[in-house]
Amino acid sequence: MAARGAFSNRLGFILAAAGSAVGLGNIWKFPFEVGLGGGAAFVGMYLLFCFLLCFPVMVTEVAIGRKTQKNAIGAFNSLGFKKWNFIGKLGIFCGILILSFYNVIAGWAFGYFFEMAVGNFSISQNFGVYTSNVLKVGAYAVVFMLFTAFFVSKGVSGGIERLAKILMPSLIFMIFCLVGYALTLPNAFEGIKFYLVPDLSEITMSTVGGALRQAFFSLSLGMGALITYGSYLSKSDNIVSSAAFITLADVGIAFIAGLMIFPLVAFNNGGDMSLVQSSQAGPALIFVTLPGVFETLGAGLGAFVGAFFFLLLSFAALTSTVSLLEVPVSYVVDEWKLDRKVAVGAVALLIFIIGLPSMLANGASGFFSGSFTMPGGSTDFLSLAALSADTLLLFGGFFIVTFAAYVWKKENLHEELAEGFDGYHASFVKTFIDFAISYVCPVLLAILFVLVFLNNFFGINLL
Ligand code: PHE
Hey, is 187 helix, strand or coil? Predict the structure, then answer.
């Protein structure tokens, strides 16, 4: 199996998988979802979903990958359940869809790094002009896709793992510096209050759905990314503790990103948090709010801190785009026996093209920027793609656990989890995983999927 590549050790796997998990989802999406979802009540639900529903799905994905040492589709074939490989097909489709728009946003963030570095703070008032400048954001997106393709073409240990080993520690260091700074600003406390003191009246179906989708998206679950990464993991490594670590790292960094963003928002608005639910919120939140904050620091320091922040965001995005690209690439390399470099080039190009409508969806084209009718009003192509992909992740997650518990059978799953984990069979965590994948996850995910789907796409509220 050496030809497929492998992580050099458990730490390499953990960092790469945590790198996949920690991305725009934590630093860009989580804060604005919390904002739209009304603050702390959303945070509470998100945490609950991550540990109760998502952790068992993660363990299952990694186990399927490691057991078979195959890509997201090949894994189901190799277990002898070819009919179930639709889960993998759906996953690869979903990965392609996510990367197609994710790369556009990563490109915006990367572009902001340069804008901040030259002190162009007024860009926040012209965010719409920036995103509709196709040549500019298109060029950043090309560069970002090239970086992604470069690291994936270098292979699992030489590219993906090495990248994560450098970027993840840098990211953690950078984020702590920025939190420390944000907490010292005037009105920081108003931001923290919004973030951490729950208002239960804010819980609605769309908040519940949003928190669940966010949990899946943020943990890179439901589309085979962790089947793929798991397939490069050694038999002697402990899957359960690795997955626990990855979940904690992801949740921890999202949580800390909130501690950084909300004080900055509060500072920028004199303690008024209503902005996070206004027209400047949503995907634009950090792009519109933060430059103004950096500007108040004065030209030199502001440019430095601003560039530092958007570099951090680009780093986080890169370890995620790499994992998104690896999912289809791994399939093409395993099943079509294509050379990795050729596979990377072809798949990356295809995904870039699929991403063009998303690139045009924030001003450049009137059609892609707002002609999609949804229950809440018309929306743009990028938001629609993101919502569809997120919802598909729930669907995938449901099928993955259901498959493992009832088709592959949980004894086989437990057998795989016991490899590299002495004492697994007698442990409490086994009982928890067993119960979760047999009942809690399938039942709750099925119900929530239906509720979320009806709510998002048809405006029907059953709760
Ligand atoms: N988890 C990534 C993020 O939070 C996004 C992602 C989703 C990556 C699905 C891989 C698979 O940014």
Answer: coil
